[in-house]
Amino acid sequence: MIDDIFRAAENVADEAEVFFARTEAISADLKQDKIAIGSKSSGSGIIIRIIKDGKIGVSCTDNPQTWKRCLDAACASAKFADPLTWKGLPEPADVDKRPLALDKRIKTDPYLVTDIISQLKAGSEAYKADITSGSASVAISSHTIANSNGLNYSTTGTQVHVSLEMIAGQSTGYESDTSWNLDQINPQETGEKASFFAAKGQGGEEIETKTYDVILSPMAVSQLLDAAIIPALSGRNVHTGRSVFAGKVGDYVAGEYISLIDDPMDPRGVANSAWDGEGMPVKKNPFIENGVLRSFAYDLRTAYRYDETPTASAVRTGQSGAPAIGNHNLILSGPEFDIFEDKALFVHDLIGAHTANPMSGDFSVELSSPFFAYDGELQEPVRTGMMSGNIFEILYRIQGCSKETRTLGSVIVPSVRLSDIAIIGRG
């Protein structure tokens, strides 16, 4: 089929690209402590991209047999696109074609999902709380990317996801975990953490309005990165005046020991591959290195438009599956020590982080599952309050990081300890 598409595209386009994906998944949802819904699904889709006279057209279909109409639609969309200086789709390269995120033990088997649910529920019994909802799913996906320059890469990956929400009185607790490898996911621990936050979060005291040392969990850190830092590293946002980092390459934008590096081959990543969403060989991209801004992320379209070097930062997202600027395994690192030893306010989750201003970085969010932490543990619960500040300034306020990290989507992050953060109580 792919060869047929390229033969047809020769007559209507200068270059063509085909992305074919297939996924099979099985999942189960909990309502209270019973499985309420179980489902198994499979599907496939094809995305065709063509380039004609510097104009790019894209179309997709979930029925690969209709590829001719999909190709026609891609050609039609190109007619409405703005032309740019196009320098070509990638040629074939010597890349590692082994699957880098595949656990062959993972099957779309109901018994595997029910076993994961059993582990999740067993962990939830660690503290006295009730399950409100939860889920477990496993998926096997494969994709092929090919273009008219002779590039043709295929890979297969697996993924396991668990989540659990619990309640005790008026206190709730939530936890989740995702991995491509059964050895890297712990459903029982996920259940234990959810029950801990629900049970131990009861009866918290009101917090005084002032500045505190704050410890953000990996979940909270990832929320702030997604809200403003990652968008500011996009080459498209830089060149269109929508990034606070514009014109600051070579300047300090974080504490001198803080780094943000995209490492597509880190084994902790959930979707590792030796090529990006356009078939470009991936590499390690140091965006912020020891506090200094080094580079931005570019896909082919943006790099060509602004005469920059592509960074193999294209990912396949959104309903159309067209390539867009993203990151693979964005890793936050800094000085490591026991950040829970001295007293600080621990925050597990931030409610409303998505409302932060991505341009200025200003935010005001509600705290979820806050505790005072000291002597290496979470201690007294705190009634919820508000945290306000600026996400970009937080990069300067990181005192240190935990040795343990979590993989959350396309980021790999530790817990971080921040200094002098404004907390607003309700008293």
Textual characterization of the structure:
This protein has 427 residues and is an alpha+beta fold. The protein folds into 2 domains: 2-198, PmbA/TldD superfamily (PmbA/TldD fold), CATH 3.30.2290.10; 203-427, no CATH class. The protein contains 8 helices and 19 strands. Strands 3-2-1-4-5-6 form a 6-stranded antiparallel beta sheet. A hairpin with a 2-residue loop joins strand 5 and strand 6 (171-179). The radius of gyration is 23 Å and the shape is globular. The N and C termini lie far apart (66 Å). 45% of the residues are buried.
Backbone CA Rg: 23 Å
Mean pLDDT: 96
Strand order in space, largest sheet = 3-2-1-4-5-6
Biggest beta sheet attributes:
6 strands, antiparallel
Give me the strand/helix succession.
Answer: HEEEHHEEEHEHHEEEHEEEEEEEHEE
Amount of helix? 10-25%
Strand content: 35-45%
Termini separation comes to 66 Å
The secondary structure category is: alpha+beta
Number of domains: 2
Could you tell me the number of beta strands?
19
Number of helices: 8
Query: Tell me, what's the shape?
Result: globular
Q: Could you outline the blueprint of secondary structure elements for this entry?
A:
Blueprint: H1 2-9, E1 15-31, E2 34-52, E3 55-61, H2 67-78, H3 110-124, E4 130-147, E5 152-168, E6 171-179, H4 187-200, E7 210-216, H5 218-232, H6 235-239, E8 259-262, E9 285-289, E10 292-293, H7 300-305, E11 314-316, E12 323-325, E13 330-333, E14 344-351, E15 362-374, E16 377-381, E17 386-390, H8 391-394, E18 398-408, E19 411-424
Parallel strand pairs: 7-14, 13-19
Antiparallel strand pairs: 1-2, 1-4, 2-3, 4-5, 5-6, 7-19, 8-9, 8-13, 9-10, 11-12, 14-15, 15-16, 15-17, 17-19, 18-19
Helix pairs in contact: 3-4
